[in-house]
């Protein structure tokens, strides 16, 4: 079998879970004997492949023409309520009302911009619907995608959907806490691995960490436009430590050294850093959401991401009483499992 994986446009530019998912999927497929090529939309539409597996929004690909082989799309889907909903730049349950108010005002003040955003969103859904197969990370993600296709592109047939779980690299099961503490500075700390940005909610986490006798360490690249958000986090918690990027081996050590890993996001399709932290045996706190709860609810403390008070309470509870199931939970997920599930889906 010859497979062309077409990654996100920024895969080679920015670090993140999207890059990990694509490259580890390709490597795992190669271990099964599949011939995998990683290329752009132009290659995928001009060369013969059994499967063209596109990650993200396939609008560009569909404009160039249909691939010769079977078109598989992993949209890593953010539903309309997230993609076109309020940007959460303020913190707390009351602030969520203000966020929605500002969002509503923006629709009144900039109707053409909002109309353009919705049209691009519908174009994306229509492009996704041209796939022969949709591959999602969870049952919940598939349901959200199918619901939006039915609601916003009525009459468009929904392609078959296959659930293929994300994996965890073996390196994260063997980190050294001693090396991790040396990397971030000795002393106890709470960790959040993820790009600082409103959807990942590090601002609420920074507020939640006030009064917690631990440092907060953020690991993740700051994308253009999010510098002010990181500044707001630092203003809320001046002791915050930010590290833009670490190698997988260094990250494994930092996971092992952390007292708790917190990813109190407003939305995640998997939350790969949560799985990686569990592999290190580190207790985790996650933001409430159907996709991440499908993966981790039985071994994570689940919180309302709009409540710093609830996040703080969960952090303190995790420090005092780890659940004890962390590594075993992470062992459910491997990139080799991902490859096997994909082979089944490709052959379907």
**Strand line-up of the largest beta sheet:** 2-1-3-4-5-6
Q: Major beta sheet, specifics? A: 6 strands, parallel
Please report the total strand number as a whole number: 12
Task: Outline the low-pLDDT stretches.
Answer: none
What number of structural domains do the residues give? Answer: 2
Terminal-residue CA separation: 14 Å
How would you classify the helix and strand content by structural class? alpha/beta
| CATH structural architecture of the largest domain | 3-Layer(aba) Sandwich
Mean pLDDT: 90
CATH topology of the largest domain: Rossmann fold
Question: How much helical structure, as a percent, in the residues?
Answer: 40-55%
How is the quaternary structure best described?
single chain
Quick one: overall form? Answer: globular
Q: Count of DSSP helices?
A: 16
Reading the helices and strands in chain order gives EHEHEHEHHHEHEHEHEHEHEHEHEHHH
Structural Rg: 20 Å
Corresponding CATH superfamily of the largest domain: Glycogen Phosphorylase B
CATH class of the largest domain: Alpha Beta
Question: Could you tell me the strand content as a percent range?
Answer: 5-15%
Description:
- With 348 residues, the chain is α/β, with parallel strands linked by helices.
- The protein has 2 domains: 2-81 and 111-167 and 334-347, Rossmann fold (3-Layer(aba) Sandwich); 170-330, 3-Layer(aba) Sandwich (Rossmann fold).
- Helices cover 46% and strands 14% of the residues.
- It has a 6-stranded parallel β-sheet. A 6-stranded parallel β-sheet has the order 9-8-7-10-11-12, sandwiched between helices.
- Helix 9 links the parallel strand 7 (189-193) and strand 8 (215-219).
